[in-house]
């Protein structure tokens, strides 16, 4: 099956339009929220579903390795998506909607940062985690796409890719993680 030419131009043109339209002050603010937690010695806890779960995990991979390597300052990052057995235990014994809240109850301290990622902004387990974190003295940062959904309203701080395209929203969220890493590691 020949798909024809032009997918690269079509996709990249949509991504360029998104990147031209995003609120750069909102991005800078989101980077500062992560920086403040790091400099304050707080945990930075990431979570998300589907592709966003891999983005959450990738953030912690990059940040835990690269930032201390370049700054000689520890980075207390963890992701709630890296233990499939634990997630499935909470899903089985409580509910899938509580897989993140169950974990937060064991580790969350006041002032920690919970960075929640949801392309749609409406993942119930992500929303419950943000609400729990808000109620227990944490700082919350939501990365969302589409209309922002419930996450845009629930999170204290938001980085929003206003686009009705999951892949482009995920691309943008992924780039946010790289911006954080480069800024905190001193690359830019």
TrEMBL record:
Domain SIS: 34-188
GO biological process: carbohydrate derivative metabolic process
CDD domains according to UniProt: SIS_GmhA
PROSITE patterns named in the record: SIS (PS51464)
InterPro entries for this protein: GmhA/DiaA, SIS_dom, SIS_dom_sf, SIS_GmhA/DiaA_subfam
GO molecular function, one term: carbohydrate derivative binding
Domain of life: Bacteria
PANTHER family per the UniProt record, alphabetical: SEDOHEPTULOSE 7-PHOSPHATE ISOMERASE / DNAA INITIATOR-ASSOCIATING FACTOR FOR REPLICATION INITIATION (PTHR30390), SUGAR ISOMERASE (SIS) (PTHR30390:SF8)
The protein's name: SIS domain-containing protein
Source species taxonomy: Bacteria, Pseudomonadati, Pseudomonadota, Betaproteobacteria, Burkholderiales
């Amino acid at each position: 099956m020949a798909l024809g030419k032009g997918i690269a131009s079509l996709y990249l043109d949509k991504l360029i339009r998104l990147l031209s339209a995003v609120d750069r002050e909102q991005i800078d603010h989101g980077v500062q929220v992560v920086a403040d937690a790091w400099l304050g010695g707080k945990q930075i806890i990431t979570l998300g579903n589907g592709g966003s779960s891999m983005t959450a995990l990738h953030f912690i991979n990059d940040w835990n390795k690269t930032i201390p390597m370049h700054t000689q300052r520890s980075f207390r990052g963890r992701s709630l998506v890296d233990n499939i057995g634990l997630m499935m235990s909470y899903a089985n014994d409580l509910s899938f909607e509580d897989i993140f809240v169950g974990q937060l109850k064991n580790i969350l301290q006041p002032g920690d940062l919970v960075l929640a990622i949801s392309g749609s902004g409406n993942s119930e387990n992500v929303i419950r985690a943000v609400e729990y974190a808000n109620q227990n003295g944490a700082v919350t940062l939501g990365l969302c796409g589409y209309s922002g959904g419930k996450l845009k309203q629930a999170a204290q701080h938001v980085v929003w890719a206003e686009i009705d395209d999951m892949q482009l929203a995920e691309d943008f969220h992924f780039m946010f993680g790289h911006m954080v890493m480069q800024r905190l590691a001193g690359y830019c």
